[in-house]
Amino acid sequence: MTLADVVAVAMFVGVIAYGLFGGADFGSGFYDLTAGRGEMAGELRELVDHSIGPVWEANHVWLIYILVIWWTGFPRSFAAATTTLFIPLILALAGIVLRGASFVFRKYAATYRQARLFGAIFAGSSLITPFFFGTVVGALASGRVPAGGYGDRIGSWVNPTSFVGGALAMATCVFLAGVFLTADAQRSGADALAERLRIRTIAVGIVAGAIVFAGLYPVTHDAPILRGAAAPLLVIAAVAGVATLALLYLRRFSIARIPAAGAVAAVIAGWGVAQYPWMLVGQMTIAQAAGAHPTMVGLLVVVGVACVFVLPALGYLLWLTQTEVWSRH
């Protein structure tokens, strides 16, 4: 494994982390959007606020981490991707900004109508953001980003692989969020709410599985590179997904979070394994995209420093949100 490969792996670890932590964060918007009205709806929205409140901004550390490594470690591929896929990237960025602003504004809304408006913006942008990130993944995996950049502004992300990627990203985020919210509801003593979330999360999990299997045909024909190497990880994801559904059915909500996270991580890892050694499929390998040697060394040093100083702080924050004291407030 070359130095460039090590840096690429370090970057992809960030992709998996963002898919897990950011995914559970984004997916909560679906449950907020479909909560309805009345006392039970208020209870669900309060749970969403309580669960993601401490971490919704911290999760974007992973996105910053990915982008910094990409544009400094592999600048040519970054330029090619951003000049080709600027439309879905801008839409995803708009979703992040609107989501964050509306999440805060609805807490200070002067009227109920304003609160509902900001809540709808928060929920809607929570869904469109992972969708457009998924279309970017589909464009990269299907080889629609030319090495020189400035590719097809529409066709690069409006295609079968991108749409399946967007739908799958959205569905897995909602499923992951449902599993975590159900566990949070049970831990806080809201058993009736946990039961409602349990049923909805099982339904979402079945839909996510259907998207995976329905999308296999168009994706494997539109993006042949995703065949073969990713199959074992997709099998792992399928087994983990079924295990999650079984644990939800048995009301083992806390344990269900483990295979749920494993299923999502396996799907993302499958994309990375299948695409290796390409940075831009059919256009540019990781070695060809790599920046100067001193830059790559410097990036690994920074990653090491981040592991020492940043990871413990994030880990402690996540641990605090799972304690009984936090759950009761």
UniProtKB/TrEMBL annotation:
Transmembrane intervals: 6-31, 85-105, 117-143, 163-185, 197-217, 229-250, 257-276, 296-319
GO biological process: one example: aerobic electron transport chain
Keyword Membrane included in the entry's annotation: yes
Signal peptide: none
Domain of life: Bacteria
One GO cellular component term noted in the UniProt record for this chain: cytochrome complex
UniProt-annotated location(s): Cell membrane
Stored InterPro entries: Cyt-d_oxidase_su2
MF terms (GO), sorted A to Z: electron transfer activity; oxidoreductase activity, acting on diphenols and related substances as donors, oxygen as acceptor
A Pfam family of this chain: Cyt_bd_oxida_II
UniProt KW keywords: Cell membrane, Membrane, Transmembrane, Transmembrane helix
Membrane topology: Multi-pass membrane protein
Annotated family: Belongs to the cytochrome ubiquinol oxidase subunit 2 family.
Name of the molecule in the record: Cytochrome D ubiquinol oxidase subunit II
